[in-house]
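Thread: Newbie trying to understand structure tokens

Hi all, I'm a second-year student working on a class project, and my supervisor (Dr. K.) asked me to get a predicted structure for one chain before our next meeting. I've only ever worked with sequences, so writing a 3D structure as a token string is new to me. If someone could post the tokens and maybe explain what I'm looking at, I'd be very grateful. Here's the chain:
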Amino acid sequence: MSKKQSKQYDRPLPINIINLPVVTHNPISWIWCLGSYVKQWYQLKQGVVDIQYCDGIFKVSGSHYMNEVWNSGFIGKGILSRSEPTWLHRTRRRLGLDPLFDESGRLLLTNEETVQIRREERKKFKLKREELEAQENYFKTTGDMTSLQKVTKLKSILIEDNKQLQRKPLRELIMENYSVAGDKKEQTRADSALFIDETHIKDLEYLQLMPVEALFLSFCFGSKVNDFNLFQLFQLCMSRSFEVDNSFILLYMVYHHYKSHGWCVKSGTKFGSDFLLYRRGPPFQHAEFAVLVQPNYKPSDSPSNEWIDISAISRVVGGVNKTLLLTYVTQPTKDAFRQALTMFSESPTPHSLRNLLELMRGFVVATIIVGAANCVMAFDFEQFFGGQNRQQQRTQQNNQPQDYEQQQLNSDCQKYLCPETFACVAKPVDCPCPFPQSQIKCVFPDKQNFVCISSPVDNVNGVPVRDCKWVEKAWKGLL
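---
Reply by user tm_fold:
Sure, no problem. This is what the structure looks like when written as tokens:
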């Protein structure tokens, strides 16, 4: 990642900061400061992005506005690109309208073009290797040891050359194997329909947003979606189903939480999850976590094989070197939710929506699968939007087995009854782990909550031990 690209993606959120010059006691500097402020304020006002809603899709059109949204937290996805909306630049280069290098000789390729070139080289290497392996198998079968030695040597040379190729700068690779610009003679009939004139083509791409991204931009940064006010947008995203367990509000709570903590949040549909979490963003590295959103209350008619599905998803996520996070959102009572919803409909302001979302609290359970060992952590969304701590009554879970309910009701514990072990203790933090022989108890620094994790093992290939010190770092957000 070049320094220019790092500077291009230096804003994790679409927030522009007005940089004012240093003010001195000279009145001329005051005029300079005022002029700079007015100029940058006008630029910020012109940069407000409007979102369009059409045919059930939230989208941002226009190359400038698409780049503004994408470069400020990697929000949305270009419909004709892998992620970043670069179709216009790639097409212009393919049609010979733009060069690969600027006047100073700097490479102008997009990330998608760079990945494509590297993949083409790997594909060529794999095809040559398969040919040599087929010859090896043939000579082994016929017993021709002389030819087998020659093919084995050629295979070793091919593998060594591929290692050198991977270390070769992209600029040298392009100069040796690819043309500097496209060939206008090879333009197809479909390409000719793209041209507005000899030097300009139509931009067919737009940036598609998830509903949670559209509400996030409107709620937090004032972006307009058609002529909708905030309540109408919220009503549209919830599909006009104002129930406390609506999947959209659960998804938005989790999206807002991770986004406000600096994570890059993208759709996780590709891996069977709700979201993917990047430390910086797709141009820098792969996603580290996959998030599966779960309500803390499940109706009695919910599928009984829920944990089988989660196990299947964890296998998929683990196969691509990611960690599965189970995010549980605690739902308020229906009466409290409807009361806050009524106030929001009467006054569709960001403050009213914030009061509605503050009713939702949650905790995250991170299932870290390393072989057969699972490590479980818990976090609390105590002050999700910075509001006051509120006492919430959790909804009764009707899907618990009858014998478990009887044990809870028939207990003679006069203090606190641990829900997993039925131990009678003075306070919740004193509860023991359900599997003391294979788990250790880690108390959080607040001395009010704890988590039981699998007993740590020795370092494996330099991976640090996940013990109580590791949990404390995770609780403090130091990992």
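A couple of things are worth pointing out once you decode it. The first strand starts at residue 52 and ends at 54. The CA atoms of residues 116 and 122 lie 10 Å apart. Feel free to ask follow-ups in this thread.
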